[in-house]
Design goal:
alpha/beta, 11 helices, binds orotidine-5'-monophosphate, OMPdeCOase_dom, orotidine-5'-phosphate decarboxylase activity, EC 4.1.1.23
Length: 246
């Protein structure tokens, strides 16, 4: 496996959005040998729990636990402490929870790290505006004025000032986030759709190649891989497209 392939595959986060461990494990088997990141979201975590996470870690995967915490600071602090103890590599909170809540996540993580030196520091990122949110939903339903890009950058600045490592946003906003928070501030971008694939409920989408071109550090891909007739081929095709950019 050449280094370029390995590096690019490590920037692909596969969303294991399945109702149980059996179905998720079947996909993991199909992707065996591809050194991608794996994402466990609420559907799988609420069904299969920490055991599935540990199983992925035992198989050598980097794991993003996507539970999008959004609660009072004290509760998020406790949640972050428990999540860090699971040994995950990345987890997220909602930037809409505010600075104090994001700082509490950081504190919770630090408490876990201090109590167990065998743990490594996970990346903590803040969800800005969901990639399913359109301009009109933002303005008319959520009640935030102005354009979506400004709203995302405002949240990114808030996350950076709270000491978090990066944000979840659509790849469209990555250049502006980079300008505001610096190129080292991590951008994780879902809403990825290879040319010709179904958008589903995603609104702010780009192709894998376009997202890398915009400067995304990681891309998150679910259904274009999990619903493909040949998921392994779909994942390989995405990595190839990512490699062709740089
Ligand atoms: O935090 C996330 O991962 C996330 C944030 C966001 O704004 N949009 C978004 O789609 N996601 C997640 O990324 C994945 C995208 O899946 P697909 O739309 O199937 O590719 C899902 O697991 C979502 O929960």
């Amino acid at each position: 496996m050449n280094t370029e392939y390995k590096n690019m595959a490590g920037r692909l986060i596969v969303a294991l959005d399945y109702p149980d461990a059996t179905q998720a494990s079947a996909l993991v088997e199909q992707l065996q040998g591809i050194p991608c990141y794996m994402k466990v979201g609420m559907q799988l975590f609420y069904a299969a729990g920490p055991d599935f996470m540990r199983n992925l870690k035992a198989r050598g995967y980097s794991v993003f636990l996507d539970l999008k915490m959004h609660d009072i600071p004290n509760t998020v602090k406790g949640g972050a402490e428990s999540i860090t103890r699971l040994g995950v590599d990345m987890f997220n909170v909602h930037a809409a929870g505010g600075t104090q809540m994001m700082q509490a996540a950081y504190e919770g993580m630090n408490n876990a790290l201090a109590s167990d030196p065998s743990l490594s520091k996970p990346i903590i990122i803040a969800v800005t505006q969901l990639t399913s949110t359109t301009q009109s939903v933002l303005n008319e339903q959520i009640g935030v004025e102005g354009n979506i890009e400004d709203a995302v950058v405002r949240y990114a600045n808030l996350a950076a000032s709270a000491g978090l490592d990066g944000v979840v946003a659509s790849a469209h906003e990555v250049p502006s986030i980079g300008k505001a928070c610096g190129r080292d501030f991590i951008t994780v971008t879902p809403g990825i759709r290879p040319a010709g694939s179904h958008l589903g409920d995603q609104a702010r989408v780009l192709t894998p190649g376009e997202a890398i071109e915009q400067g995304s550090h990681y891309i998150v891909v679910g259904r274009p891989i999990t619903s493909a007739s040949n998921p392994r081929e779909a994942a390989e095709q995405i990595i190839k497209e990512m490699m062709n950019v740089e």
